[in-house]
UniProtKB/TrEMBL annotation:
It comes from Flavobacterium gilvum. The lineage of its organism: Bacteria, Pseudomonadati, Bacteroidota, Flavobacteriia, Flavobacteriales. Residues 4-184 form the DUF3322 domain. This is Wadjet protein JetD C-terminal domain-containing protein. InterPro entries: DUF3322 (IPR024537), JetD_C (IPR024534). Residues 207-377 form the Wadjet protein JetD C-terminal domain.
Length: 398
């Protein structure tokens, strides 16, 4: 026989449907709870205990909740007994009070009516997402202010905290998820659908990553940057940079960036701090296409994976000081960081062979452990020599 707890669980599953019908202005219809109309106990005292428990939580005893219809049935073990044949909620309030949801629904009605009065086009969204109304029940005044602003200014080009909306300065940041969902409906034609970032998606200014670079040619430094040689600018500005360069060295870490200052004369050259896998920040720098690009990373699996990543953006990229001769000469038995990458990389045959050794043994040689004099000789002998075409694997890493 069904228990009061089982009735509550089954009734709770109908709650969202009830909210949807309220918004859709559909009248409440009797909610029947399906249950076992039989009984499991052959002992009369146990049977009577079950029946009394079921009745004690019913509308008959509590003045709200479920109603029970009984029918006299002749049973095999207990003789003729009144067995429950139907259990149902007759009114909306019977159900809400039984679920202790009456105050929640009262506030739900206030909120959804407010939402639809301002944005009638959101009615279908509300019907599909009643739980979102409840989850944000104390924030709707602010949410609607924000959405009203975007409705009138769909491409504001301001930082979030610059928005002239009378809400807490962190309100939009705290409530991005719900605001995003609503704006996707309200200003569809202005939404950058492919963007996941809130600011980019809704035409706001955002804090861009900075590209830090050192100018290794003093004439460029003097002529274009008033003598400055260590500079950091937003990615979008770096993408528009227009200076007479022939060569770019991308380095994995800051220590290597400083080491570039000790290199022999590097005309028309800059060194960029790639910051590991963050080299993705400069993947859209179109003016790299016709330059000589060098990648200078640690001799470990991550170093080669970053090299491969960068070479995927710019196929002409050559590695610097990431060869087996250098590794064998200066390796100090340091452990690297394990990788879960699989598949072929954008590496030359020699690079791939060294990568395989490093991965199998979890070895690492950091570039800072290579002496300056060796680095300088390498650049004098290798980097200033005529360029050779690259031949590397072109299977993407999984």
């Amino acid at each position: 026989m069904i228990s009061p707890n089982e009735i509550k669980v089954k009734a709770g599953r109908k709650y969202l449907s009830l909210l949807q019908s309220i918004v859709d202005e559909k009248p409440f219809t009797q909610l029947v709870i399906r249950g076992d109309k039989g009984y499991n106990k052959s002992s009369l005292p146990e049977f009577e205990k079950e029946i009394l428990l079921l009745i004690s939580h019913s509308k008959e005893k509590k003045s709200f909740g479920y109603t029970i219809d009984f029918q006299k049935v002749k049973t095999k073990h207990l003789g003729t007994q009144d067995l429950p044949t139907t259990i149902y909620f007759d009114t909306e309030m019977d159900l809400l009070k039984y679920l202790s949801k009456e105050k929640e629904v009262e506030l739900f009605k206030v909120n959804y009516e407010k939402i639809i009065s301002i944005f009638p086009e959101l009615k279908e969204w509300v019907i599909q997402n009643p739980s979102r109304i409840i989850q944000n029940q104390n924030e709707w005044e602010g949410i609607l202010k924000v959405c009203s602003f975007f409705k009138e200014n769909p491409a504001p080009n301001l930082y979030i905290r610059e928005l002239p909306i009378n809400v807490h300065t962190k309100f939009v940041e705290r409530n991005q998820a719900i605001i995003r969902d609503i704006l996707d409906v309200l200003i569809t034609e202005f939404v950058n659908i492919q963007e996941k970032n809130f600011e980019k998606r809704f035409n706001l200014k955002f804090s861009e990553p900075l590209v830090r670079f050192i100018i290794l040619d003093k004439e460029i430094s003097l002529n274009f940057f008033t003598g400055l040689d260590d500079i950091a600018i937003p990615v979008s500005q770096f993408e528009k940079l227009n200076i007479p360069l022939q060569k770019v060295i991308v380095v994995e870490n800051k220590t290597t960036l400083y080491t570039t200052l000790t290199l022999p004369r590097m005309d028309k050259t800059i060194a960029i701090f790639g910051s590991g896998f963050s080299v993705s920040n400069i993947k859209n720098v179109d003016w790299f296409t016709n330059l000589e690009l060098l990648y200078w990373g640690d001799i470990d699996v991550q170093g080669f994976e970053i090299l491969s990543q960068f070479r995927g953006y710019f196929p002409q990229t050559k590695s610097v000081l990431m060869d087996k001769k250098t590794f064998d000469k200066f390796f100090e038995n340091d452990n690297g960081t394990l990788t879960n990458k699989t598949g072929q990389l954008y590496l030359t045959d020699d690079e791939q062979a060294l990568y395989t050794i490093l991965k199998a043994n979890n070895w690492r040689l950091e570039q800072e452990k290579i002496p300056f004099d060796y680095v300088n000789k390498y650049f004098e002998n290798e980097i200033t020599s005529p360029s050779q075409p690259l031949a590397y694997q072109n299977n993407k890493m999984e």
